[in-house]
């Protein structure tokens, strides 16, 4: 990983704080919103910075603080506490659509862009709802909207797959991760992160949509397998799964189309016994790792991404480092008491491969 850009906004008034940054892929355009004790820009003002010209190219001002920004090559998406606004990405941005949302103080939203479709996901108008909007140029006048009732509590994290076919969500409770089909709005998977409450700080699908990585404020990284082939965590095929009953209480089993068992993910050995609480029927991640340290002096929320289908990058803001974790397969030799033959059993692990400091960002 190499440093793409670095800018110091120096002012005689010491108002240099930047609270929010969003980059348009690897282009020269960066969205900036002021933050901190002395913000560089008002917190209700969005600046689109042209790094090629080394100056602002667009300013947009709103009636409330900007909590999130997503850039595509043709759209500027602004997330406010109770609204999502979609502008055309042009020299004088025109407001195309405005959507009301439930309280969204964390600026939760995500966008999937590919050659076929551009799906924007964000909280709906009611608690626990997900709103899906097709913002593809071909459908710009149709205003295609879908609603998914995903959770009983407020939405805290959203991630849409690269293909735009799946959306993962977590509520402010943070114990369950649900994945829905974006076309049919049906529940595909329900996974358990843990039993105690946690804040999901980051969540991303792998490039080929075969896995979902989830990071929480417990400093635990969980990876869930979405691929039916238990012999590999990779593959290029999209996931096909069947819907089980979505009663909102954790009774969804990790079962795929045709009855295939997603056996890489873990489950409780008592899951098939009757009359047990739904907790015992839950499906857990197939690999997990504590990525925090007892020596951490600050509560640092990491942001994760994938560099390939088996490699995860976590960026730590206050630590000033990025880490690389790799999913690897270990083999354990098993011997049978009834046979002189030994066999190997695969076990998946996530290991830290390396890290690097951002360097001195203050110079």
UniProtKB/TrEMBL annotation:
GO CC annotation terms, alphabetical: endomembrane system; vacuolar membrane
Bilayer topology term: Peripheral membrane protein
Predominant location category: membrane
InterPro entries xref list: PROPPIN (IPR048720), WD40/YVTN_repeat-like_dom_sf (IPR015943), WD40_repeat_dom_sf (IPR036322), WD40_rpt (IPR001680)
GO biological process assignments: protein transport
Pfam families named among the record's database cross-references: PROPPIN
UniProt-annotated location(s): Endomembrane system; Vacuole membrane
Alphabetized UniProt keyword annotations: Protein transport, Repeat, Transport, Vacuole, WD repeat
Gene3D superfamilies: YVTN repeat-like/Quinoprotein amine dehydrogenase
Family note: Belongs to the WD repeat PROPPIN family.
UniProt name for this protein: Unnamed protein product
Species per Swiss-Prot/TrEMBL record: Ambrosiozyma monospora (Yeast)
Source lineage: Eukaryota, Fungi, Dikarya, Ascomycota, Saccharomycotina
């Amino acid at each position: 990983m190499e440093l793409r850009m670095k800018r110091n906004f120096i002012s005689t008034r010491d108002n240099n704080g930047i609270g929010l940054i969003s980059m348009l892929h690897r282009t020269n355009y960066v969205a900036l919103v002021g933050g901190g004790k002395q913000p560089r820009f008002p917190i209700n003002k969005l600046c689109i910075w042209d790094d090629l010209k080394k100056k602002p190219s667009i300013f947009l001002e709103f009636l409330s603080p900007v909590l999130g920004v997503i850039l595509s090559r043709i759209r500027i998406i602004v997330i406010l506490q109770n609204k999502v606004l979609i502008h055309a990405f042009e020299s004088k941005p025109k407001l195309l659509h405005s959507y009301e949302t439930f309280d969204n103080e964390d600026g939760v939203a995500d966008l999937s862009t590919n050659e076929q479709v551009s799906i924007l996901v964000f909280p709906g108008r009611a608690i626990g709802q997900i709103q899906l909007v097709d913002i593809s140029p071909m459908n710009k006048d149709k205003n295609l909207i879908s609603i998914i009732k995903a959770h009983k509590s407020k939405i805290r994290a959203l991630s849409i797959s690269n293909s735009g076919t799946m959306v993962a969500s977590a509520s402010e409770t943070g114990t369950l991760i649900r994945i829905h089909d974006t076309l049919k709005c049906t529940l595909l998977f329900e996974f358990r992160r843990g039993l105690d409450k946690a804040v999901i700080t980051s969540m991303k699908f792998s490039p080929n949509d075969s896995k979902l990585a989830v990071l929480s404020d417990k400093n635990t990284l969980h990876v869930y397998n979405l691929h039916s082939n238990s012999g590999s965590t990779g593959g290029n095929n999209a996931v096909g799964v069947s819907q089980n009953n979505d009663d909102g209480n954790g009774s969804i089993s990790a079962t795929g189309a045709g009855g295939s068992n997603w056996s890489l993910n873990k489950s409780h050995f008592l899951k098939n016994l009757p009359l047990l609480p739904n907790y015992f029927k839950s499906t857990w991640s197939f690999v997990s790792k504590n990525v925090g340290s007892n020596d951490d002096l600050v509560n640092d929320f990491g942001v994760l991404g994938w560099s390939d289908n088996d490699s995860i990058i976590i960026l730590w803001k206050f630590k000033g480092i990025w880490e690389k974790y790799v999913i690897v397969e270990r083999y354990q030799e098993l011997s049978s008491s009834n046979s002189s033959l030994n066999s190997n059993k695969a076990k998946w692990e996530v290991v830290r491969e390396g890290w690097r400091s951002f360097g001195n960002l203050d110079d």
